[in-house]
Amino acid sequence: MAFDNETTLWLSGNEAIALGAWEAGVRVASGYPGTPSTEIMENLSRYEGVHAEWAPNEKVGLEVAIGASFAGARALATMKHVGLNVAADPLFTAAYTGVRGGLVILNADDPQMHSSQNEQDNRNYAFAAKLPMLEPSDPAEAKQMIGRAYELSEQLDAPVIIRITTRIAHVKGVVEKGARRGTPEPSIEKSPAKLVMLPGNARVRRVAVEKRMQALRDLVETLPENRIEPGTGTRGFITSGVPYNYVKEIFPDAPVLKLGMVWPLPEKMIRAFAATVGELIVVEELDPFIETHLKAMGIPCRGKDLIPNQGELNSFIVRKAIVPETIGEIFAPLDLPMRPPNMCAGCPHRGLFYGLSRMKDVFVSGDIGCYTLGFLPPLSAMDSCVCMGASIGVAHGMAKALGKQGEGKVVAVLGDSTFMHSGITGLLNMAYNGTYASVIILDNRTTAMTGHQENPASGKSILGEPALALNIEELCRALGIRRVSVVNPHDVEATRKVLKEEIEAPEPSVIISRAPCVLLPEEVKRQKPVYFTNLDNCTGCSLCVQMGCPAISWTPLAPEEAVARGYREKQKGFARIAEVQCNGCGQCACVCKFEAITKKEAK
Predict the structure, then answer these.
(1) Could you give the count of Cα atoms lying within 13 Å of 503 in the half-sphere of its Cβ?
(2) Is pLDDT above 60 for 557?
(3) What value does the mean pLDDT take over residues 486-505?
(4) pLDDT tens-digit profile of 436-493?
(5) What is the H or E stretch that residue 393 is in?
(6) Do the domains 227-325 and 348-523 sit in the same CATH topology, yes or no?
(7) Whole-number Å distance between alpha carbons of 351 and 329
(8) From 595's CA, which of 84, 303, 373, 475 has a CA 20 to 30 Å away?
(9) How far is CA 183 from CA 62, 102, 499, in A?
(10) Between vectors from CA 226 to CA 266 and to CA 134, what angle results, nearest 5°?
(11) Residues whose CB is less than 8 angstroms from the CB of residue 399 and which lie 6 or more positions away in sequence, other chains included
């Protein structure tokens, strides 16, 4: 296909969704960064006529979108799958209030947990909340479904959920660019009986929800996104989303019912298709969602007795599950070396976690962020990680359970963006209910894990424009925390002293570990010193290596080699710094007791 830069584009699924939202006339978009959904909001923010923003969390983001919808504007809320857990409260009630302007909730599931703490299947949310859900199979279809979702939202007076997965979010495809649709000007229109969910009003709206679902069940039978693709053979497939591509690749001539709307299901269409095949197989990732509902309809089918219900599918897995005899050695997996994740060279979190790693009797309640890598060896300085913002509540609960025996032994660690997301209320609870647990806020001036998005403490908006920069110290004091200190984590020894003092304090305390992420553009450009190893002074104590910096490597030595090199006979090796990787943080020099790590001139 020839590419016309004006009309034909090569876009990722996230880029295509942003374009589709702009073309659909979206005026307000709000979300919280979370892989694999992050780039949708980043791309949408660049289009004229759209107010896009990073919200402190997904609940707030959805509430902002609901408010825009109530004003008659088309609105979008974006989040990853676990973010919908946070936004579930407004989600379920929005199903009752309905909409005025179209409201779409973009939900990105993460099969295989590429960057997530669980593998939940959010099709179950559509079922539980009684809301329609669409699921595209490629970027072009994702763009098209955004427009369809807004039409359905306004036609049905309901929010519409679009479910994508990691493969849709990040795969590239050909997308045709269209024009932006004109939409009515927003205005205030009062409808308290519809929008005020007191029990009396909610009971009336509950009836409306069921009427809507019945209308949707009729509509879904003729929805173009649901289609039967005729084929040959007696084996037929029902599938949706990314697995549709695997089915078409492996069984290109087989009959397929492709579902673009995965809830509610087109029962009449499914029955008609099932009657034409001898064996019906449902191919879907994660839960047996479609399969379960087919069996509830009394339609015989196979699914999770063949297809795994864990992890991400691919063509090899689907083929092996259905026709294992066709698998030959060509499909043997490659034996690739492991490449474990690691904090970057110069990461400010390393100095903080190095200090915690020396406190062997302290329980570290961790949280979600790139600092979660502090769990990995050689630091091994995190003992739990549940969900966004849970670190503080977990630490408080543990302290209450342990009582006096736990004093000086419980600490919570979370990032600045995570603290904004859902840590503030946990800290308020600690102050209100009293505890001796300490909280460490890792303030690296950005939301680093998802690609350096802004947050309420960074001082910039999604467009990089000046915005409110929340004073974290003053907020903590306003919540009732009397002990608030700030440390520079690159000064490892000074940080360890503050950690010891505050963790042992008999009241709640907050330590703010403040240093910018080394990958922020301004930090990358900044001239920094570079450190190197003076091998004449290195004794092979390996303290610097125990920090886990990727710029530091260890060269082991046999006893005779150590003598030949002029080292002590018992020296087991020496550390060397790759100067091209060094970001000049100086943490390794702080822990070296033999002046073997020396600073060079600035780059």
Answers:
(1) 24
(2) yes
(3) 94
(4) 999 999 999 899 888 898 988 888 899 889 998 999 999 999 999 999 999 999 999 9
(5) helix 390-402
(6) yes
(7) 47
(8) 373
(9) 21, 10, 56
(10) 90
(11) 406, 410, 435, 436, 437
Question: What does the pLDDT read at residue 359?
Answer: 93
**What is the β-pairing status of strands 28-31 and 384-385?**
unpaired
Sign of CA dihedral 8, 14, 20, 26: negative
The domain spans of the chain are 8-219, 227-325, 348-523, 527-600
Reading the block at residue 481, the tokens are 């925390």
Write the CB contacts of 588 (distance below 8 Å, at least 6 apart in sequence).
531, 544, 547, 549, 552, 577, 597
Instruction: Please state whether the peptide bond connecting residue 33 to the residue before it is cis, i.e. omega within 30 degrees of 0.
Output: no
Q: At what angle do helices 88-97 and 199-220 cross, to 10 degrees?
A: 80
According to CATH, the topology of domain 8-219 is Rossmann fold (3.40.50)
Helices (H) and strands (E) counted in the chain, each on its own, are 23, 23
d(CA 387, CA 568): 48
Specify the pTM.
Answer: 0.90
| Measured distance CA(190)–CA(70) in Å, rounded | 9
DSSP 3-state of 174: strand
The whole-angstrom separation of Cα 439 and Cα 412 is: 5
Of the options 3.30.9.10, 3.30.70.20, 2.60.40.10, 3.30.390.30, the CATH number for the domain spanning 527-600: 3.30.70.20
- For the chain, the average pLDDT equals 92
Nearest-angstrom CA–CA distance, 121 and 203:
29
List 553's β-bridge partners, or say none: 576
pLDDT tens-digit series, residues 359-379: 999 999 999 999 999 999 999
CATH number of 348-523: 3.40.50.970
Q: Which helix (H) or strand (E) holds 133?
A: strand 133-134
Residues 578, 347, 375, 371, Cα dihedral to 10°: -150
pLDDT 10s digits, 158-216: 999 999 999 999 999 999 999 999 989 999 999 999 999 999 999 999 999 999 999 99
pLDDT at 570 over 80: no
Choose which CATH entry (3.40.50.150, 3.30.559.10, 3.40.50.920, 3.50.50.60) describes domain 227-325: 3.40.50.920
Beta strands in 153-278 (DSSP E): 160-165, 172-176, 227-229, 235-240, 256-259, 261-263
Give 224: exposed, middle or buried? Use CB within 10 Å, 0-12, 13-18, 19+.
exposed
